[in-house]
Amino acid sequence: MTSATAGATTGTTGQIWSYAEAANPVRRGLCEPLRPCSWPASLHGTGPTARLPLLPPADQGLAEGATSPALAAAFLRLLPGESLCLPQGWTSLFLYVLQGDGTLGPAPSLSWDRGDALVLPVSPRLTLHARTEAVLYAVDDSPLLRWLGAIPAQGPRFSPVRFDADHLERHLRQVAGESAAARANRVSILLGHPDLPTTRTVSPSLWAMLGIVAPGSVQAPHRHQSVALDLILSAPPGSHTLVGERLDAEGQIMNPERIQWESGGAFLTPAGWWHSHVNPSDQEARLLPVQDAGLHSHLRSLDIQFMPAPGPAAVHQPRQGP
Ligand SMILES: [Fe+2]
């Protein structure tokens, strides 16, 4: 490394790196590569009203409170009749109601119930009020703004949206019932915002999906440059996700890490890692991943890639996945 003076009278001395020193800073000691990690449902099972952040191991090198470089995820636990004031500093907040019901203020307040999803733009003094004991999954883009040193605009970039649980269920069942679903690699619906016709995402930064992993199925591996923060909604016995950095010659994930599913738990899939959801049981498994794919879609950097569905020899279970 050499140095050069940036200004004649003011400014910090700049740094000059050789190309090899700085061309790929995603490595140990610099921008730490992310690794898969998971969080148990016990994190939100008991205790007082609180925001419970999902924090990866310290050696991932992320900023305080960040779950991934761009996103912060948390469980919001509320006791009956209590309120929780939400932190600020984000442009998009996604909420999914795992349990309970209540409202979100200030007025005019939005009501929420089990299975509902909400996406909110920057709003002052957002407070959740629980009518019954409640747990919500929350993902926002505050780490991205802190990295940029940005302050959200005063005016909202998009309007608040509430996805009613029955509405989501109806559409998911419709997709599951379509004849093509039996041959598809996945049975999923993507949550879109009417203000975002180009990215078809739930907010400018966030992307959210509600999906089924059919009984006895092994999804073909896929990957994307967005980080996935998956909430597990239903985890029948043996359901899991295989995650790895590379594929072998047969298109299978090499030396995969196995993330065992737990209903109400969550896990992180790093950007660019191949992953495959597996459900060996005879019951339906469900997941709700939230990603920074709104941002990646806008940047044209999502780079989502799919392997063809595995043939019978690659599937350990008798029934081929979607
Ligand atoms: Fe994925």
Task: Give the structure's gist in a few sentences.
The chain has 322 residues and is mainly β. Helices cover 10% and strands 34% of the residues.
Describe the structure.
By secondary structure, the chain is mainly β. The protein has 2 domains: about 35-160, Sandwich (Jelly Rolls); about 165-315, Sandwich (Jelly Rolls). Helix content is about 10%, strand content about 35%. It has helices spanning about 20, 140-150, 165-175, 295-300, and strands spanning about 1-5, 15, 35-40, 50-55, 70-80, 85, 90-100, 100-105, 110, 115-120, 125-130, 135-140, 160-165, 185-190, 205-215, 215-220, 220-225, 230-235, 240-245, 255-260, 265-270, 275-280, 285-290, 305. The strands form 6 sheets. The protein has a 6-stranded antiparallel β-sheet with strand order 3-21-18-23-15-14, with helices on one face. Strand 8 and strand 9 (about 110) form a beta hairpin. The longest helix has 13 residues, at about 165-175. Mean pLDDT is about 90; it is low at about 310-320. The structure holds fe (ii) ion. Fe (ii) ion binds next to loops.
Fill in the CATH topology of the largest domain: Jelly Rolls
Spatial strand sequence of the major β-sheet: 3-21-18-23-15-14
Report the sheet-strand fraction.
Answer: 25-35%
Instruction: Give, in order, the helices and strands.
Output: EEHEEEEEEEEEEHEHEEEEEEEEEEHE
Cα radius of gyration in angstroms: 21 Å
State the total count of DSSP E strands. 24
Total domain modules: 2
Give the CA-CA distance, first to last residue: 52 Å
